[in-house]
Amino acid sequence: MSTSRDVDIIQVSVENEELLAQVKRTETVAKGKCIVPKWLPPILIIVLILTILGAAFAMGYFISYPRKSIKPLKLYNESCTVLSGECDDSRGLYCPSGRCICETVNSYYNGSSCICPNLTHVANQACVADPFYGQTCSPPTIYCISNFICSTAGVCTCNATTQFFNESYCITQYVYNASCTETRHCSNTSNLYCLSNRCACVSNYYWNGSSCVPKKLGWQTCNNVTTGASALPCDDTLSLYCYSNSTCQCPNTMYWDINYQQCETKRLYGDICNADFYCNETLNFICPTLPGTCNCPAWSNDYTCDCQPNWFYDGLQCIQRKSINGTCLGTYACDRNTPLVCFSGLCLCPTPTTWTGSNCTCSSGQTWTGSTCVVVG
Ligand SMILES: *[C@@H]1O[C@H](CO)[C@@H](O)[C@H](O)[C@H]1NC(C)=O
Ligand SMILES: *[C@@H]1O[C@H](CO)[C@@H](O)[C@H](O)[C@H]1NC(C)=O
Ligand SMILES: *[C@@H]1O[C@H](CO)[C@@H](O)[C@H](O)[C@H]1NC(C)=O
Ligand SMILES: *[C@@H]1O[C@H](CO)[C@@H](O)[C@H](O)[C@H]1NC(C)=O
Ligand SMILES: *[C@@H]1O[C@H](CO)[C@@H](O)[C@H](O)[C@H]1NC(C)=O
Ligand SMILES: *[C@@H]1O[C@H](CO)[C@@H](O)[C@H](O)[C@H]1NC(C)=O
Ligand SMILES: *[C@@H]1O[C@H](CO)[C@@H](O)[C@H](O)[C@H]1NC(C)=O
Ligand SMILES: *[C@@H]1O[C@H](CO)[C@@H](O)[C@H](O)[C@H]1NC(C)=O
Ligand SMILES: *[C@@H]1O[C@H](CO)[C@@H](O)[C@H](O)[C@H]1NC(C)=O
Ligand SMILES: *[C@@H]1O[C@H](CO)[C@@H](O)[C@H](O)[C@H]1NC(C)=O
Ligand SMILES: *[C@@H]1O[C@H](CO)[C@@H](O)[C@H](O)[C@H]1NC(C)=O
Ligand SMILES: *[C@@H]1O[C@H](CO)[C@@H](O)[C@H](O)[C@H]1NC(C)=O
Protein backbone atom coordinates (compact mmCIF):
# COMPACT_ATOMS: atom_id res chain seq x y z
CA MET A 1 0.00 0.00 0.00
CA SER A 2 2.84 2.42 -0.64
CA THR A 3 1.95 5.74 -2.12
CA SER A 4 4.12 7.61 -4.54
CA ARG A 5 5.23 9.69 -1.57
CA ASP A 6 6.69 6.69 0.30
CA VAL A 7 8.64 5.67 -2.80
CA ASP A 8 10.16 9.08 -2.97
CA ILE A 9 11.34 8.91 0.64
CA ILE A 10 13.03 5.49 0.19
CA GLN A 11 14.88 6.65 -2.86
CA VAL A 12 16.26 9.55 -0.93
CA SER A 13 17.57 7.34 1.91
CA VAL A 14 19.34 4.97 -0.57
CA GLU A 15 21.15 7.83 -2.09
CA ASN A 16 22.23 8.88 1.39
CA GLU A 17 23.75 5.42 2.24
CA GLU A 18 25.89 5.36 -0.86
CA LEU A 19 27.07 8.76 -0.04
CA LEU A 20 28.04 7.72 3.51
CA ALA A 21 29.99 4.70 2.20
CA GLN A 22 31.95 6.89 -0.14
CA VAL A 23 32.76 9.22 2.72
CA LYS A 24 34.00 6.28 4.90
CA ARG A 25 36.30 4.95 2.18
CA THR A 26 37.70 8.36 1.68
CA GLU A 27 38.43 8.66 5.43
CA THR A 28 40.17 5.26 5.61
CA VAL A 29 42.41 6.05 2.72
CA ALA A 30 43.18 9.34 4.31
CA LYS A 31 44.34 7.47 7.57
CA GLY A 32 46.79 5.26 5.50
CA LYS A 33 45.06 1.87 5.93
CA CYS A 34 44.62 -0.57 3.04
CA ILE A 35 41.27 -1.50 1.79
CA VAL A 36 40.36 -5.26 2.06
CA PRO A 37 37.34 -7.06 0.74
CA LYS A 38 34.64 -7.76 3.36
CA TRP A 39 35.02 -11.67 3.09
CA LEU A 40 38.72 -11.77 3.86
CA PRO A 41 38.83 -11.34 7.71
CA PRO A 42 36.58 -14.41 8.56
CA ILE A 43 38.70 -16.66 6.31
CA LEU A 44 41.87 -15.45 7.99
CA ILE A 45 40.41 -16.13 11.45
CA ILE A 46 39.38 -19.69 10.52
CA VAL A 47 42.85 -20.44 9.11
CA LEU A 48 44.44 -19.09 12.28
CA ILE A 49 42.26 -21.25 14.55
CA LEU A 50 43.01 -24.38 12.52
CA THR A 51 46.72 -23.68 12.69
CA ILE A 52 46.61 -23.29 16.48
CA LEU A 53 44.58 -26.47 16.94
CA GLY A 54 46.90 -28.45 14.71
CA ALA A 55 49.92 -27.27 16.61
CA ALA A 56 48.27 -28.10 19.92
CA PHE A 57 47.45 -31.66 18.80
CA ALA A 58 50.92 -32.20 17.49
CA MET A 59 52.49 -30.97 20.71
CA GLY A 60 50.16 -33.05 22.82
CA TYR A 61 51.01 -36.13 20.79
CA PHE A 62 54.73 -35.64 21.13
CA ILE A 63 54.45 -34.89 24.81
CA SER A 64 52.25 -37.89 25.70
CA TYR A 65 54.05 -40.47 23.51
CA PRO A 66 57.76 -40.51 23.90
CA ARG A 67 59.33 -40.85 20.54
CA LYS A 68 60.24 -44.36 19.61
CA SER A 69 62.57 -45.69 17.03
CA ILE A 70 61.02 -45.48 13.63
CA LYS A 71 62.45 -48.92 13.01
CA PRO A 72 59.95 -51.86 13.56
CA LEU A 73 59.88 -53.52 17.00
CA LYS A 74 62.21 -56.46 17.27
CA LEU A 75 61.17 -60.12 17.16
CA TYR A 76 62.32 -63.15 19.04
CA ASN A 77 66.08 -63.67 19.37
CA GLU A 78 66.92 -60.39 17.60
CA SER A 79 69.62 -58.40 19.32
CA CYS A 80 68.45 -55.47 21.33
CA THR A 81 69.65 -52.83 23.77
CA VAL A 82 69.09 -54.05 27.33
CA LEU A 83 65.71 -52.91 28.72
CA SER A 84 65.30 -50.54 25.79
CA GLY A 85 61.73 -51.42 24.87
CA GLU A 86 62.93 -52.40 21.41
CA CYS A 87 61.36 -55.88 21.64
CA ASP A 88 57.71 -56.31 20.69
CA ASP A 89 56.01 -56.59 24.04
CA SER A 90 52.69 -57.28 22.33
CA ARG A 91 54.27 -60.62 21.46
CA GLY A 92 55.38 -61.11 25.07
CA LEU A 93 59.03 -60.23 24.27
CA TYR A 94 61.47 -58.14 26.30
CA CYS A 95 65.19 -57.46 26.34
CA PRO A 96 66.86 -58.53 29.61
CA SER A 97 70.32 -59.22 28.15
CA GLY A 98 70.81 -58.23 24.54
CA ARG A 99 68.36 -60.54 22.81
CA CYS A 100 64.58 -60.44 22.64
CA ILE A 101 63.22 -63.36 24.62
CA CYS A 102 59.91 -64.36 26.15
CA GLU A 103 59.10 -62.55 29.35
CA THR A 104 56.65 -65.01 30.95
CA VAL A 105 58.59 -67.77 32.70
CA ASN A 106 58.30 -71.11 30.93
CA SER A 107 56.54 -69.62 27.92
CA TYR A 108 57.93 -70.30 24.46
CA TYR A 109 57.90 -68.48 21.11
CA ASN A 110 55.65 -70.28 18.68
CA GLY A 111 56.85 -68.33 15.65
CA SER A 112 54.67 -65.32 16.19
CA SER A 113 54.29 -64.82 19.93
CA CYS A 114 55.20 -66.15 23.35
CA ILE A 115 52.64 -68.65 24.62
CA CYS A 116 52.34 -71.01 27.54
CA PRO A 117 52.69 -74.71 26.68
CA ASN A 118 49.56 -76.85 26.53
CA LEU A 119 48.04 -77.72 29.92
CA THR A 120 49.49 -74.59 31.50
CA HIS A 121 48.26 -71.05 31.96
CA VAL A 122 49.75 -67.70 32.98
CA ALA A 123 49.89 -66.83 36.66
CA ASN A 124 52.30 -64.36 38.32
CA GLN A 125 54.35 -63.85 35.14
CA ALA A 126 54.91 -67.57 34.69
CA CYS A 127 53.31 -70.50 32.94
CA VAL A 128 52.00 -72.84 35.64
CA ALA A 129 50.25 -76.19 35.37
CA ASP A 130 46.50 -76.16 34.87
CA PRO A 131 44.57 -77.26 37.98
CA PHE A 132 44.03 -80.95 38.71
CA TYR A 133 41.01 -82.66 40.27
CA GLY A 134 40.03 -80.82 43.47
CA GLN A 135 41.98 -77.66 42.64
CA THR A 136 40.45 -74.29 41.86
CA CYS A 137 39.67 -73.25 38.31
CA SER A 138 38.09 -70.23 36.61
CA PRO A 139 37.35 -70.42 32.90
CA PRO A 140 38.09 -68.93 30.44
CA THR A 141 41.54 -68.15 31.84
CA ILE A 142 42.16 -71.24 33.96
CA TYR A 143 40.79 -74.51 32.63
CA CYS A 144 41.05 -77.84 34.38
CA ILE A 145 43.60 -80.36 33.24
CA SER A 146 42.55 -83.79 31.92
CA ASN A 147 38.80 -84.03 31.24
CA PHE A 148 37.76 -82.52 34.55
CA ILE A 149 34.96 -79.99 34.50
CA CYS A 150 35.06 -76.75 36.44
CA SER A 151 32.17 -76.91 38.88
CA THR A 152 30.00 -73.89 39.63
CA ALA A 153 31.97 -73.64 42.88
CA GLY A 154 35.15 -73.22 40.78
CA VAL A 155 36.71 -76.60 41.55
CA CYS A 156 37.92 -79.18 39.03
CA THR A 157 35.70 -82.22 39.38
CA CYS A 158 33.84 -84.95 37.54
CA ASN A 159 30.14 -85.00 36.75
CA ALA A 160 28.89 -86.49 40.00
CA THR A 161 25.79 -88.03 38.48
CA THR A 162 27.33 -89.69 35.43
CA GLN A 163 31.06 -90.08 36.06
CA PHE A 164 33.62 -91.19 38.61
CA PHE A 165 37.20 -90.10 39.20
CA ASN A 166 39.79 -92.83 38.58
CA GLU A 167 42.67 -90.81 40.12
CA SER A 168 43.55 -89.29 36.75
CA TYR A 169 40.42 -89.06 34.56
CA CYS A 170 36.69 -88.70 34.77
CA ILE A 171 35.25 -92.01 33.59
CA THR A 172 31.65 -92.53 32.53
CA GLN A 173 29.98 -94.82 35.06
CA TYR A 174 29.48 -98.39 33.96
CA VAL A 175 26.28 -99.98 32.72
CA TYR A 176 24.38 -102.98 34.01
CA ASN A 177 26.41 -106.17 34.34
CA ALA A 178 29.72 -104.43 33.59
CA SER A 179 32.58 -105.55 35.81
CA CYS A 180 33.42 -103.16 38.64
CA THR A 181 35.29 -102.92 41.92
CA GLU A 182 33.36 -100.12 43.63
CA THR A 183 29.77 -98.96 43.63
CA ARG A 184 30.76 -95.45 42.51
CA HIS A 185 31.90 -97.02 39.22
CA CYS A 186 28.34 -98.12 38.41
CA SER A 187 25.67 -95.85 36.97
CA ASN A 188 24.05 -94.02 39.83
CA THR A 189 21.17 -92.80 37.70
CA SER A 190 20.37 -96.46 36.95
CA ASN A 191 20.60 -97.18 40.70
CA LEU A 192 23.29 -99.81 40.14
CA TYR A 193 25.60 -101.10 42.86
CA CYS A 194 28.84 -103.03 42.52
CA LEU A 195 27.94 -106.49 43.79
CA SER A 196 30.28 -109.45 43.33
CA ASN A 197 32.33 -107.31 40.89
CA ARG A 198 29.35 -106.66 38.61
CA CYS A 199 27.17 -103.56 38.32
CA ALA A 200 23.88 -104.97 39.53
CA CYS A 201 20.70 -104.22 41.44
CA VAL A 202 20.47 -104.77 45.18
CA SER A 203 18.62 -107.96 46.05
CA ASN A 204 15.17 -106.47 46.53
CA TYR A 205 15.40 -104.59 43.20
CA TYR A 206 15.46 -105.94 39.66
CA TRP A 207 16.79 -104.68 36.30
CA ASN A 208 13.90 -103.58 34.10
CA GLY A 209 16.12 -102.90 31.07
CA SER A 210 17.05 -99.34 32.01
CA SER A 211 17.32 -99.13 35.78
CA CYS A 212 16.95 -100.99 39.05
CA VAL A 213 13.41 -100.82 40.40
CA PRO A 214 11.78 -102.45 43.45
CA LYS A 215 10.55 -106.01 43.15
CA LYS A 216 6.82 -106.64 43.55
CA LEU A 217 5.19 -106.87 46.94
CA GLY A 218 2.27 -108.91 48.32
CA TRP A 219 -0.81 -109.17 46.09
CA GLN A 220 0.83 -107.19 43.26
CA THR A 221 0.71 -108.56 39.73
CA CYS A 222 3.80 -110.62 38.89
CA ASN A 223 5.38 -113.17 36.59
CA ASN A 224 8.35 -115.49 36.85
CA VAL A 225 10.59 -113.33 34.56
CA THR A 226 13.35 -111.82 36.71
CA THR A 227 15.21 -109.40 34.37
CA GLY A 228 14.32 -107.14 31.46
CA ALA A 229 11.46 -105.04 30.21
CA SER A 230 8.81 -107.75 30.67
CA ALA A 231 9.99 -108.85 34.13
CA LEU A 232 7.68 -108.53 37.15
CA PRO A 233 9.41 -110.56 39.85
CA CYS A 234 8.08 -110.88 43.41
CA ASP A 235 10.32 -109.71 46.24
CA ASP A 236 11.95 -112.99 47.16
CA THR A 237 13.89 -111.31 49.96
CA LEU A 238 10.49 -111.05 51.67
CA SER A 239 9.74 -114.72 50.85
CA LEU A 240 7.17 -113.69 48.26
CA TYR A 241 6.72 -115.85 45.18
CA CYS A 242 4.58 -115.56 42.10
CA TYR A 243 1.52 -117.68 42.70
CA SER A 244 -0.12 -119.36 39.71
CA ASN A 245 -2.78 -116.64 39.54
CA SER A 246 0.02 -114.06 38.89
CA THR A 247 -0.10 -112.37 42.29
CA CYS A 248 2.78 -112.26 44.74
CA GLN A 249 1.96 -114.46 47.71
CA CYS A 250 3.68 -115.47 50.91
CA PRO A 251 4.53 -119.09 51.58
CA ASN A 252 1.43 -120.96 52.71
CA THR A 253 2.35 -120.82 56.39
CA MET A 254 2.46 -117.00 56.18
CA TYR A 255 0.27 -114.12 55.15
CA TRP A 256 1.07 -110.68 53.69
CA ASP A 257 0.90 -108.01 56.38
CA ILE A 258 -0.23 -104.86 54.65
CA ASN A 259 0.95 -102.58 57.47
CA TYR A 260 4.43 -103.98 57.88
CA GLN A 261 4.75 -104.89 54.18
CA GLN A 262 6.14 -108.31 54.91
CA CYS A 263 5.11 -111.93 55.28
CA GLU A 264 4.07 -112.92 58.78
CA THR A 265 3.55 -116.34 60.29
CA LYS A 266 -0.11 -117.28 60.26
CA ARG A 267 -1.73 -116.71 63.63
CA LEU A 268 -2.91 -119.09 66.30
CA TYR A 269 -5.94 -119.39 68.54
CA GLY A 270 -6.90 -116.08 70.18
CA ASP A 271 -4.56 -113.94 68.03
CA ILE A 272 -5.98 -110.84 66.40
CA CYS A 273 -6.90 -111.24 62.74
CA ASN A 274 -8.55 -109.32 59.93
CA ALA A 275 -9.50 -112.17 57.64
CA ASP A 276 -9.39 -115.95 57.57
CA PHE A 277 -5.98 -115.99 55.81
CA TYR A 278 -4.37 -114.43 58.89
CA CYS A 279 -5.15 -117.60 60.84
CA ASN A 280 -3.39 -120.97 60.58
CA GLU A 281 -5.82 -123.03 58.53
CA THR A 282 -4.01 -126.33 59.02
CA LEU A 283 -5.04 -125.99 62.66
CA ASN A 284 -8.54 -125.15 61.34
CA PHE A 285 -8.66 -121.60 62.65
CA ILE A 286 -10.91 -119.00 61.11
CA CYS A 287 -11.31 -115.29 61.72
CA PRO A 288 -14.90 -114.69 62.96
CA THR A 289 -16.11 -111.26 61.90
CA LEU A 290 -19.19 -111.28 64.14
CA PRO A 291 -19.08 -111.56 67.93
CA GLY A 292 -20.65 -114.51 69.64
CA THR A 293 -19.96 -117.10 66.93
CA CYS A 294 -17.47 -118.83 69.13
CA ASN A 295 -18.22 -122.42 70.08
CA CYS A 296 -15.12 -122.77 72.16
CA PRO A 297 -14.67 -123.27 75.88
CA ALA A 298 -13.86 -119.62 76.50
CA TRP A 299 -15.76 -116.69 75.15
CA SER A 300 -13.70 -115.02 72.44
CA ASN A 301 -14.03 -111.79 70.57
CA ASP A 302 -14.66 -111.27 66.91
CA TYR A 303 -11.50 -110.70 64.80
CA THR A 304 -9.45 -113.19 66.77
CA CYS A 305 -8.47 -116.57 65.32
CA ASP A 306 -11.05 -119.06 66.49
CA CYS A 307 -13.01 -122.19 65.51
CA GLN A 308 -15.83 -122.47 63.01
CA PRO A 309 -19.31 -123.24 64.36
CA ASN A 310 -19.80 -126.66 66.04
CA TRP A 311 -16.04 -127.08 66.33
CA PHE A 312 -14.02 -126.52 69.46
CA TYR A 313 -10.50 -125.71 70.52
CA ASP A 314 -8.78 -128.62 72.22
CA GLY A 315 -5.74 -126.61 73.36
CA LEU A 316 -3.82 -127.12 70.08
CA GLN A 317 -6.28 -126.80 67.24
CA CYS A 318 -9.93 -126.71 66.33
CA ILE A 319 -11.62 -130.08 65.96
CA GLN A 320 -15.16 -131.15 65.26
CA ARG A 321 -17.44 -131.56 68.26
CA LYS A 322 -17.86 -135.13 69.31
CA SER A 323 -20.71 -137.49 68.68
CA ILE A 324 -22.30 -140.07 70.98
CA ASN A 325 -19.98 -141.66 73.53
CA GLY A 326 -17.12 -139.25 72.61
CA THR A 327 -14.92 -138.15 75.48
CA CYS A 328 -15.43 -134.58 76.65
CA LEU A 329 -14.45 -132.06 79.30
CA GLY A 330 -17.57 -130.00 78.78
CA THR A 331 -20.69 -129.80 76.70
CA TYR A 332 -18.82 -127.41 74.33
CA ALA A 333 -17.04 -130.53 73.03
CA CYS A 334 -20.26 -132.40 72.16
CA ASP A 335 -22.21 -132.03 68.90
CA ARG A 336 -24.88 -129.49 69.66
CA ASN A 337 -26.93 -130.32 66.57
CA THR A 338 -27.81 -133.88 67.60
CA PRO A 339 -27.91 -132.60 70.51
CA LEU A 340 -25.50 -134.13 73.05
CA VAL A 341 -24.36 -133.10 76.49
CA CYS A 342 -21.19 -133.95 78.39
CA PHE A 343 -21.87 -136.26 81.29
CA SER A 344 -19.23 -138.09 83.27
CA GLY A 345 -16.67 -137.33 80.56
CA LEU A 346 -18.80 -138.69 77.73
CA CYS A 347 -21.10 -137.07 75.17
CA LEU A 348 -24.56 -138.52 75.87
CA CYS A 349 -28.16 -137.76 74.95
CA PRO A 350 -29.88 -135.43 77.38
CA THR A 351 -32.60 -137.21 79.39
CA PRO A 352 -35.24 -138.15 78.50
CA THR A 353 -34.06 -138.50 74.88
CA THR A 354 -32.45 -141.61 73.52
CA TRP A 355 -29.93 -142.17 70.70
CA THR A 356 -31.70 -143.37 67.60
CA GLY A 357 -28.72 -143.99 65.33
CA SER A 358 -28.01 -140.45 64.20
CA ASN A 359 -29.46 -138.19 66.89
CA CYS A 360 -31.15 -138.00 70.20
CA THR A 361 -34.94 -138.22 69.97
CA CYS A 362 -37.82 -137.94 72.34
CA SER A 363 -40.33 -140.77 72.68
CA SER A 364 -42.92 -140.84 69.90
CA GLY A 365 -45.46 -138.09 70.01
CA GLN A 366 -43.03 -135.79 71.76
CA THR A 367 -40.59 -133.20 70.53
CA TRP A 368 -37.36 -131.66 71.93
CA THR A 369 -37.66 -128.03 73.05
CA GLY A 370 -33.96 -127.57 73.71
CA SER A 371 -34.20 -128.61 77.34
CA THR A 372 -36.95 -131.21 77.56
CA CYS A 373 -39.47 -133.29 75.59
CA VAL A 374 -43.03 -132.09 75.29
CA VAL A 375 -46.15 -133.65 73.76
CA VAL A 376 -46.75 -132.53 70.19
CA GLY A 377 -49.85 -130.46 69.60
C1 LIG B 1 69.41 -66.88 18.35
O1 LIG B 1 70.29 -66.27 17.43
C2 LIG B 1 71.63 -66.74 17.57
C3 LIG B 1 72.52 -65.89 16.65
O2 LIG B 1 71.82 -65.53 15.49
C4 LIG B 1 71.66 -68.22 17.19
O3 LIG B 1 72.96 -68.72 17.32
C5 LIG B 1 70.75 -68.95 18.13
O4 LIG B 1 70.68 -70.33 17.74
C6 LIG B 1 69.38 -68.39 18.09
N1 LIG B 1 68.61 -69.01 19.13
C7 LIG B 1 67.37 -69.40 18.91
C8 LIG B 1 66.73 -70.01 20.06
O5 LIG B 1 66.81 -69.28 17.84
C1 LIG C 1 51.07 -68.66 18.17
O1 LIG C 1 50.17 -68.40 19.23
C2 LIG C 1 49.27 -67.37 18.96
C3 LIG C 1 48.48 -67.10 20.23
O2 LIG C 1 47.95 -68.29 20.74
C4 LIG C 1 48.36 -67.80 17.81
O3 LIG C 1 47.42 -66.79 17.52
C5 LIG C 1 49.22 -68.07 16.60
O4 LIG C 1 48.44 -68.57 15.56
C6 LIG C 1 50.33 -69.05 16.92
N1 LIG C 1 51.24 -69.10 15.78
C7 LIG C 1 51.72 -70.22 15.32
C8 LIG C 1 52.65 -70.12 14.19
O5 LIG C 1 51.44 -71.29 15.84
C1 LIG D 1 48.46 -78.21 22.15
O1 LIG D 1 47.05 -78.40 22.00
C2 LIG D 1 46.60 -78.20 20.68
C3 LIG D 1 45.09 -78.29 20.70
O2 LIG D 1 44.66 -79.18 21.64
C4 LIG D 1 47.22 -79.23 19.76
O3 LIG D 1 46.77 -79.00 18.45
C5 LIG D 1 48.71 -79.09 19.82
O4 LIG D 1 49.31 -80.10 19.04
C6 LIG D 1 49.21 -79.19 21.25
N1 LIG D 1 50.61 -78.88 21.29
C7 LIG D 1 51.47 -79.58 22.01
C8 LIG D 1 52.86 -79.13 21.98
O5 LIG D 1 51.10 -80.54 22.67
C1 LIG E 1 26.26 -84.34 34.08
O1 LIG E 1 25.92 -85.08 32.93
C2 LIG E 1 24.55 -85.03 32.61
C3 LIG E 1 24.30 -85.95 31.43
O2 LIG E 1 25.27 -85.77 30.45
C4 LIG E 1 24.15 -83.59 32.32
O3 LIG E 1 22.78 -83.52 32.02
C5 LIG E 1 24.46 -82.75 33.52
O4 LIG E 1 24.17 -81.40 33.24
C6 LIG E 1 25.91 -82.89 33.90
N1 LIG E 1 26.15 -82.16 35.14
C7 LIG E 1 27.14 -81.29 35.26
C8 LIG E 1 27.31 -80.66 36.59
O5 LIG E 1 27.86 -81.05 34.31
C1 LIG F 1 42.06 -93.83 34.40
O1 LIG F 1 41.50 -93.94 33.13
C2 LIG F 1 42.40 -93.69 32.06
C3 LIG F 1 41.61 -93.69 30.78
O2 LIG F 1 40.84 -94.83 30.68
C4 LIG F 1 43.50 -94.73 32.09
O3 LIG F 1 44.41 -94.48 31.07
C5 LIG F 1 44.21 -94.68 33.43
O4 LIG F 1 45.14 -95.71 33.52
C6 LIG F 1 43.21 -94.81 34.56
N1 LIG F 1 43.89 -94.55 35.79
C7 LIG F 1 43.72 -95.34 36.85
C8 LIG F 1 44.47 -94.98 38.08
O5 LIG F 1 42.98 -96.31 36.82
C1 LIG G 1 26.66 -110.59 32.63
O1 LIG G 1 27.92 -110.73 32.06
C2 LIG G 1 28.41 -112.05 32.14
C3 LIG G 1 29.83 -112.06 31.62
O2 LIG G 1 29.98 -111.18 30.56
C4 LIG G 1 27.51 -112.95 31.32
O3 LIG G 1 27.96 -114.26 31.39
C5 LIG G 1 26.10 -112.86 31.89
O4 LIG G 1 25.21 -113.62 31.09
C6 LIG G 1 25.64 -111.44 31.93
N1 LIG G 1 24.40 -111.39 32.63
C7 LIG G 1 23.36 -110.67 32.18
C8 LIG G 1 22.14 -110.70 33.02
O5 LIG G 1 23.43 -110.02 31.16
C1 LIG H 1 23.53 -92.11 43.93
O1 LIG H 1 23.87 -90.88 44.46
C2 LIG H 1 23.13 -90.48 45.58
C3 LIG H 1 23.54 -89.09 45.96
O2 LIG H 1 24.89 -88.98 45.91
C4 LIG H 1 23.36 -91.48 46.71
O3 LIG H 1 22.56 -91.14 47.83
C5 LIG H 1 22.97 -92.85 46.23
O4 LIG H 1 23.24 -93.82 47.23
C6 LIG H 1 23.71 -93.19 44.97
N1 LIG H 1 23.21 -94.48 44.46
C7 LIG H 1 24.05 -95.42 44.10
C8 LIG H 1 23.45 -96.65 43.52
O5 LIG H 1 25.22 -95.33 44.23
C1 LIG I 1 6.17 -119.26 38.99
O1 LIG I 1 6.98 -120.34 39.35
C2 LIG I 1 6.48 -121.09 40.46
C3 LIG I 1 7.52 -122.12 40.82
O2 LIG I 1 7.98 -122.75 39.70
C4 LIG I 1 5.16 -121.70 40.06
O3 LIG I 1 4.63 -122.44 41.15
C5 LIG I 1 4.19 -120.58 39.72
O4 LIG I 1 2.97 -121.09 39.27
C6 LIG I 1 4.77 -119.69 38.64
N1 LIG I 1 3.93 -118.55 38.49
C7 LIG I 1 3.37 -118.19 37.35
C8 LIG I 1 2.54 -116.96 37.34
O5 LIG I 1 3.59 -118.82 36.33
C1 LIG J 1 -4.70 -115.40 43.94
O1 LIG J 1 -4.44 -116.41 44.86
C2 LIG J 1 -4.54 -116.04 46.23
C3 LIG J 1 -4.08 -117.21 47.07
O2 LIG J 1 -4.87 -118.30 46.85
C4 LIG J 1 -5.95 -115.62 46.52
O3 LIG J 1 -6.10 -115.28 47.88
C5 LIG J 1 -6.30 -114.44 45.64
O4 LIG J 1 -7.61 -114.04 45.81
C6 LIG J 1 -6.05 -114.78 44.17
N1 LIG J 1 -6.16 -113.58 43.39
C7 LIG J 1 -6.77 -113.56 42.23
C8 LIG J 1 -6.80 -112.22 41.54
O5 LIG J 1 -7.26 -114.54 41.76
C1 LIG K 1 0.18 -123.87 61.59
O1 LIG K 1 0.91 -123.99 62.83
C2 LIG K 1 1.62 -125.19 62.93
C3 LIG K 1 2.21 -125.26 64.32
O2 LIG K 1 2.80 -124.04 64.62
C4 LIG K 1 2.67 -125.25 61.84
O3 LIG K 1 3.40 -126.44 61.92
C5 LIG K 1 1.97 -125.19 60.48
O4 LIG K 1 2.92 -125.16 59.43
C6 LIG K 1 1.12 -123.96 60.40
N1 LIG K 1 0.37 -124.00 59.17
C7 LIG K 1 0.08 -122.88 58.50
C8 LIG K 1 -0.68 -123.04 57.21
O5 LIG K 1 0.41 -121.79 58.86
C1 LIG L 1 -22.18 -146.01 74.12
O1 LIG L 1 -21.49 -146.68 75.12
C2 LIG L 1 -22.32 -147.57 75.84
C3 LIG L 1 -21.54 -148.18 77.02
O2 LIG L 1 -20.24 -148.47 76.63
C4 LIG L 1 -22.85 -148.63 74.91
O3 LIG L 1 -23.69 -149.45 75.61
C5 LIG L 1 -23.58 -147.96 73.76
O4 LIG L 1 -24.02 -148.90 72.83
C6 LIG L 1 -22.77 -146.95 73.08
N1 LIG L 1 -23.59 -146.24 72.16
C7 LIG L 1 -23.28 -146.11 70.85
C8 LIG L 1 -24.15 -145.34 69.97
O5 LIG L 1 -22.22 -146.58 70.38
C1 LIG M 1 -33.39 -137.06 64.47
O1 LIG M 1 -33.45 -137.97 63.39
C2 LIG M 1 -34.80 -138.24 62.94
C3 LIG M 1 -34.72 -139.33 61.89
O2 LIG M 1 -33.66 -140.16 62.12
C4 LIG M 1 -35.39 -136.94 62.45
O3 LIG M 1 -36.67 -137.19 62.05
C5 LIG M 1 -35.33 -135.89 63.55
O4 LIG M 1 -35.82 -134.65 63.09
C6 LIG M 1 -33.95 -135.72 64.09
N1 LIG M 1 -33.97 -134.80 65.20
C7 LIG M 1 -33.13 -133.80 65.31
C8 LIG M 1 -33.23 -132.99 66.53
O5 LIG M 1 -32.31 -133.53 64.42
UniProtKB/TrEMBL annotation:
Keywords: Membrane, Transmembrane, Transmembrane helix. The keyword Membrane applies. This is EGF-like domain-containing protein. The chain crosses the membrane at residues 43-64.
